[in-house]
Design a protein that fits this description.
It is a single chain. 77% of the residues lie in helices and 0% in strands. The protein is extended and about 65 Å long. By secondary structure, it is an all-alpha fold.
Length: 149
């Protein structure tokens, strides 16, 4: 199978595995209601609940902004990293390997989250995490503006 085939087949296989795992869950996870609700009513109820919860509202806003920034950064990062005229001059395969390093870091971070929370506290851990994420998003802009030679 070609590298492009693997790049499309691996996520597809993982999504299929996730759907299968969800289908195998037992139990009812629906809220019991006297009458059926519409999708619009459910969304409005969720938005009202979120608006009344300052902590959850702040976390939702932070996660939304961070996800937007991450996607914006990685959308244009290939322009700076791949090809002979780019800053890093990586090949397509090397760029793929560079992006693949994100996954082990994410897995390691998931195992380190609970010990960091116990040691430093939830609030401080979240603040450091947001600061590190912001620095990660700013790094490509700052580093590409610096002369390399």
């Amino acid at each position: 199978m070609s590298a492009a085939g693997v790049a499309f087949a691996a996520p597809a296989a993982l999504w299929a595995s996730a759907v299968l795992a969800l289908l195998l869950l037992r139990g009812s996870f629906r809220v019991e209601r006297a009458r059926p609700a519409t999708l619009r009513a459910d969304i409005a109820e969720g938005a009202r609940f979120l608006w009344r919860q300052p902590l959850l509202r702040g976390l939702a806003a932070s996660v939304g902004i961070f996800n937007f920034a991450t996607n914006a950064t990685f959308t244009i990062f290939a322009l700076f990293a791949v090809g002979p005229g780019s800053i890093l001059e990586l090949s397509g395969a090397t760029y793929g390997l560079l992006l693949a390093t994100i996954a082990p870091g994410s897995v390691a971070g998931s195992f380190l989250a609970a010990p960091c929370e116990r040691r430093f506290g939830r609030s401080r851990s979240l603040k450091v995490s947001l600061l590190a994420g912001a620095l990660l998003m700013v790094a490509p802009a700052v580093l590409t503006a610096m002369p390399c030679s």
